[in-house]
Amino acid sequence: MRALVLALGAAAALATAAPALAQMELGVIKGRVVDDAGQPLAGVEIKLVNVDRGREVTLKTGKDGRFYRRGMQAAEYTISVTLDGYQPVNDKVRIVAGTDPDFDFKLAKAAAGGSKEFQDGVTAFNAGDFATAAQRFEAAIAQAPTVPALHVNLALAYFRLKRPAEAVASLEKAAALAPNDASIQYQLGSAYVDVQAYDKAVAALQKGLGNGPDLVKDAMAAEATATLGAVYFAQGKVPEAEAAFQKVLTARPDSAAGLLGMGKVHFSRNEVPKALELFEKVVAAHPGTPEAAQAATFVKELKKGDR
What is the CATH number that goes with domain 12-106? Predict the structure, then answer.
């Protein structure tokens, strides 16, 4: 399904070999399997079949995406690398005695069944027919239940239909299918905010931000950090909120969410002039945005108090 939210790339396999210090009668095969984003894939099945003798060896990757097997007979093998929901890789490799090869594979998302249903859902969503969009995404999921992007799109339709509990459940499913996908964790965190499940929101956002993304380059990560700050503020954790907003503003000084959040922090401390300055900056720099609407309300109230 080429139109999935998650990018679909071509599967690629790279192999390099380095001579071992001593000749060995048997060889070793080892390597790592990752997804399109470079994240390790666990539970990938690696099947090797000796071309000459037909002997079959099956391995599975661990949590770090790595696989290893020693005592492999030096020979040519067919190799298949498979994981549910991903395009398989089928190739040939040669294991040579006295070498220590690394075989690294990248698996792309599989083209899901139900692609027509998915495209129909996208068309309906873009036309504002969210009920039909939800129905078509549900039909696509019935055919391809392990594709995370389908659950994400269904969640978006549910939100537009004001069915937040079902939207959260769909995002939870997507997160379970792709636990290392930061963007899904960000969306799940925001969904938890909408249903006021603040502790769960913090956990999801922190998980998504766990690898310390570059907020200058990653707009989604910057937005997620600002959302985390807003959750902290709602929980009364003002120092934590301030730290999150400051992190955003250090990377993106004109961030509407960062400026609005920091304005609220100053307002909570009764630092009215500084708060007013930040709110007015949001209104001037980001007209027409939800942040500007909130900031304008604060500005009106603060100036009313000065009279």
Answer: 2.60.40.10
